[in-house]
Amino acid sequence: MSETRGGEAVDAPAWRGEASAALRAVVPAVASMVPFALLIGFLAREAGLSTVEAFLMSAMVFAGSAQLIALDLWSWPVPVASLALTAFIVNARHVLMGAALMPHAAAWQRRYAYPALYFLADEIWALAMARAGTKPLQLSYYVALAAPFYLTWVTMTTLGHLLGAAIRDPARYGFDFAFTAIFLVILSGLWRGRGTLWPWIASAAAAVAVWYLVAGPWYILAGGVAGALVGAIQGARADDA
Asked: Is the pLDDT of residue 1 over 50?
């Protein structure tokens, strides 16, 4: 039986097949994200946020790195302007990620495509781009990636807040390394041969230089822009060859 979902004309078994493939792909990312989510919940408790506030932060912001930095800056009264600027700088990379993803989502209806970007996370983006490199990226696949990741993030950060008193020392359980470990796994999954190395080098060099020279989280934006520019130059040269 054929039906249309998000601009995809597929039958129900095919839709379920895409969703099943996505669920198998996202399970390791979800599992690796849990310690970091618990850490964010713990830090929210330490910053003085209530359980409801911690839940709403994760549900509405849904950006681990931005939440981590925001909680580090949190004080009373809340520095709203600083927090807003920091969140913008840290999450500006999502503009580049969305721009890279959208050409592979051309078949999606706009009423689905733009809301889907709200649930874009680094891990979701990496898995979606990996899929797009081998097969057309269907909306059903993307939804099955994002939904469990989002729900687990919100649930585990809330649980981390509730269990904060029991956790006490996150470093004892390795939670402080979870963020680094997740991104190392993402990098390994994005490796496409030696050509991948130059954007990585440019991104790392720009991030380190800006981190050393400029206070604040600007190094995140600088690294993303530098890597994107080098990747664009490589792509243009490949097209001209």
From this structure: no
Alpha helix (H) ranges present in 62-137? Answer: 64-73, 80-91, 93-101, 110-118, 122-132
44 within 8 A of 54, measured Cβ to Cβ: yes
The answer to whether 219 touches 210, Cβ cutoff 8 Å, is yes
What is the helix, strand, coil percentage profile of the chain, to 5? 80, 5, 15
Average the pLDDT over 209-226 and give the result. 82
Q: Which of 170, 175, 161, 168 is nearest to 48 (CA)?
A: 161
Residues 65 and 87: their CA atoms lie apart, in Å, by 9
Query: Can you tell me the distance from the alpha carbon of 133 to that of 111, in angstroms, rounded to the nearest whole number?
Result: 24
Confidence (pLDDT) at 2: 46
pLDDT at 164: 76
- One-letter amino acid at 95 equals V
Are 176 and 170 in contact, with CB atoms under 8 Å apart? yes
Nearest-10 Cα torsion for 14, 19, 20, 21: 90
Give counts: helices (H), strands (E), the chain: 12, 2
CA dihedral 39, 43, 45, 50 (to 10 degrees): -90
DSSP reduced 3-state for 215: coil
- Closest-CA residue to 118 (of 157, 147, 144, 141): 147
CA–CA distances in Å: residue 68 to residues 71, 90, 109 = 5, 10, 34
Please state, in angstroms and rounded to a whole number, the distance separating the CA atoms of residues 97 and 126: 9
